[in-house]
Amino acid sequence: MVRFENVGLRYGTGPEVLRDISFELAAGSFHFLTGPTGAGKSSLLKLLTLSERPSRGLVTLFGQQLSKLPRGALPELRRRIGVVFQDFRLLDHMTVFDNVALPLRIAGTADRRIQEAVTDLLSWVGLGDRMHLLPPVLSGGQKQLVAIARAVVTSPQLIVADEPTGNIDREMSHKIMRLFIELNKLGTTVVVATHDMYLVDRLQKPVLELYEGKLAEASWWLSPDRAGRPAPEAPPDGPAAAPSDPPDPQAAPLDSRPDPRLDPRLDPRLDPLF
Ligand SMILES: Nc1ncnc2c1ncn2[C@@H]1O[C@H](COP(=O)(O)OP(=O)(O)OP(=O)(O)O)[C@@H](O)[C@H]1O
Question: Is the CB of 15 under 6 A from ligand 1?
Fold first, then answer.
């Protein structure tokens, strides 16, 4: 689905902000992208969403090597990618319905089909009663849900989300992540950039970790320093621990977060979506 080989990126004549990036994402996989501020997460997502071209190295998307494609071929590839931007990028003068309908209208979808698809999707994300409002009257989380609905309405093969849970409360974050998990279950490949290590630890999905423009060698869902215990040996083809592993009673508490054993809503084993 996605393959990066020794990719580098520089903006203009500036220094390389991404260096020697190599990884592969299988179709239908779910990955987090983490790293400190300025590590290069958004830049990597720009490469993934074809907003930037690499300064060096090879990027292959949907089996097509980008350097071999003429610029005219990019729009067709872009239509296969749903992007959720950090700042939503909703059109404030258009209703929630029209924002979500826009990609379908651009694709020339028939009105009746648009009506059906957008209404269903907005109900699915819990905004069925907000369809005719303008974005400025929505909460941050609701805007994020609209942005996600717009990104997925065309059933893209790849969804890329930049900080989709930034500045919203825990409950809404969970709701948004559940949406991505549902879409992933339907076969969509998902990449979510986040600073929220709580979600990363809870969801137990593979992690791409960026530091100063480079990918960390081993990128698994749980780092030893976050768990307060040594990491188990990572198998070559899977995460360091099975998602179904029971919590380790000897493990140090995960900073100040609530103990999931005391709050069933936070226990991944009790939540079929986690
Ligand atoms: N358009 C641009 N022109 C020049 N430099 C840029 C541009 N966009 C990003 N950079 C630089 O690239 C580096 C990586 O930035 P990027 O936004 O990718 O990091 P990030 O990990 O997403 O950060 P954050 O977590 O704060 O969103 C930074 O040094 C930044 O200043």
Answer: no
